[in-house]
Design brief:
EC 4.1.2.13, alpha/beta, single chain, three-stranded mixed sheet, TIM Barrel, binds zinc ion, binds glyceraldehyde-3-phosphate, globular, eight-stranded parallel barrel, binds 1,3-dihydroxyacetonephosphate, 11 strands, zinc, 12 helices
C-alpha cells in the first residue's frame, strides 16, 4: 500500500473514539521499532519528521527509510512534517511526497497565523496533501525554541472555530496544558479538559491533535538515572488522560520524548552491563527493541488503535 493521508484514519478514529499515534522519526532503528509495533498491533501509524530530523538525517535518507517501511509492510502509513515553521519547508515536503504537513504559526498573531496556514492549505490541497495547524501555545522545548511557561496559552475555543472555518485546515493542534519534552509538570499533572470539551462541542467531527503527549514512563526515567543519566523529576502526561483525550475528538497523539527515553535507557544499560561490546548493532538493536515494546504498549493500551486497519 502506498503512503496515505490521515483523512480516512482520522474519521474512523473520531467515530471509534481512539487516536492514531504520531511518532517522530530520526533514523532507521526508530522507524523499524515503530513500524514493527504497528504491524504486531495491526494499526495505522503516522511517521513524523521535524526540521531537526531533516537536518540530522538528510531529507533524502529519511524519505527513503520511510519508503522502505511502506514497501516492507501493508500498513497505512502517513508521512507527516512536524512543526513546519514557514511556507517554504511545507512546500518542500509536499513536493517531496509527504502526505501530510503541519504549519505551525502558533507563535504568530491570530490573523497572521490564519494567513500563513491558508497559504499552506491552498498549496497542499491542490496536491492531495492534508494540513495540520496549531492555535494556542504549548510550553516546553521545540527544536531550538523554548517557550517559557508564562508565555504558554490555552487555545480559545471560539477562535478555534473561526480559525478552522477561515483556513480550511484538516486538523488542529490545541494547547490544553501539555508541553514538549520530559519535564511537563512540576506538581500534579493537569490538563484543561473543559477547553477540550468546548472545542469538540463547537467543532463536531473535526480531528484535534495533542502535541507534547509523551507519558514519560517512570521505568525509563529510573533506568536512565540508574545507569549514569541525569533526568531527575521527569514527568509526562498520565496515560489515563490520553485515553480521555481520545474520547473527546483528539485523533492524533504526538510522541517523541518517550521514544528518546526508551532508546536512551536501554543503550545506557547495555553500555554499563556489557562494557566489552563495541558493535553498534548490539546496542542499537536493543534500542530498537525497547522502542518497539513501548510503541506496542502505547498503541494497544493507550491510543486504542489496535486492529483498526482500513
Ligand atoms: O509534540 C511532539 C512532537 O511534535 C512530541 O511531544 P513529546 O515531547 O511529549 O514527545
Ligand atoms: O515537537 C518537537 C519534536 O519533539 C521534535 O523535536 P526536534 O525538533 O528536536 O526534532
Ligand atoms: Zn508548536
Ligand atoms: Zn509538537
Amino acid at each position: 500500500m502506498p503512503l496515505v493521508t490521515s483523512k480516512e484514519m482520522f474519521q474512523k478514529a473520531y467515530e471509534g473514539k481512539y487516536a492514531i499515534g504520531a511518532f517522530n522519526v530520526n533514523n532507521m532503528e526508530i522507524i523499524q521499532g515503530i513500524v514493527g509495533a504497528a504491524q504486531l498491533e495491526k494499526s495505522p501509524v503516522i511517521l513524523q519528521v521535524s526540521a531537526g530530523a531533516r537536518k540530522y538525517a538528510n531529507p533524502i535518507y529519511l524519505r527513503k527509510l520511510v519508503e522502505a517501511a511502506v514497501e516492507d509492510t501493508d500498513l497505512p502509513i502517513v508521512l507527516h512534517l512536524d512543526h513546519g515553521e514557514n511556507f517554504e519547508i511545507c512546500k518542500a515536503c509536499v513536493d517531496d511526497g509527504f502526505t501530510s504537513v503541519m504549519i505551525d504559526g502558533s507563535h504568530l498573531p491570530f490573523e497572521e497565523n490564519i494567513a500563513l496556514t491558508k497559504k499552506v492549505v491552498d498549496y497542499a490541497h491542490g496536491r492531495g496533501v492534508v494540513v495540520e495547524a496549531e492555535l494556542g501555545r504549548l510550553a516546553g522545548i521545540e527544536d531550538a525554541v523554548r517557550v517559557e511557561e508564562k508565555d504558554a496559552a490555552f487555545t480559545d475555543p471560539d477562535q478555534a472555530v473561526e480559525f478552522v472555518e477561515r483556513t480550511g485546515v484538516d486538523s488542529l493542534a490545541i494547547a490544553i496544558g501539555t508541553s514538549h519534552g520530559a519535564f511537563k509538570f512540576k506538581g500534579e499533572p493537569r490538563l484543561n479538559f473543559e477547553i477540550l470539551e468546548k472545542i469538540t462541542e463547537l467543532l463536531p467531527n473535526f480531528p484535534l491533535v495533542l502535541h507534547g503527549a509523551s507519558s514519560v514512563p517512570q521505568e525509563f526515567v529510573e533506568l536512565t538515572n540508574q545507569y549514569g543519566g541525569k533526568v531527575p523529576g521527569a514527568q509526562g502526561v498520565p496515560e489515563e488522560m490520553l485515553r480521555k483525550a481520545a474520547k473527546f475528538g483528539v485523533c492524533k497523539i504526538n510522541i517523541d520524548t518517550d521514544l528518546r527515553l526508551a532508546m536512551t535507557a536501554s543503550i545506557r544499560k547495555a553500555f554499563v552491563e556489557s562494557p566489552e561490546v563495541f558493535d553498534p548493532r548490539k546496542y542499537l538493536g536493543l534500542g530498537r527493541e525497547a522502542i518497539q515494546n513501548m510503541v506496542q504498549h502505547k498503541i494497544r493500551d493507550v491510543l486504542g488503535s489496535s486492529n483498526t486497519l482500513l
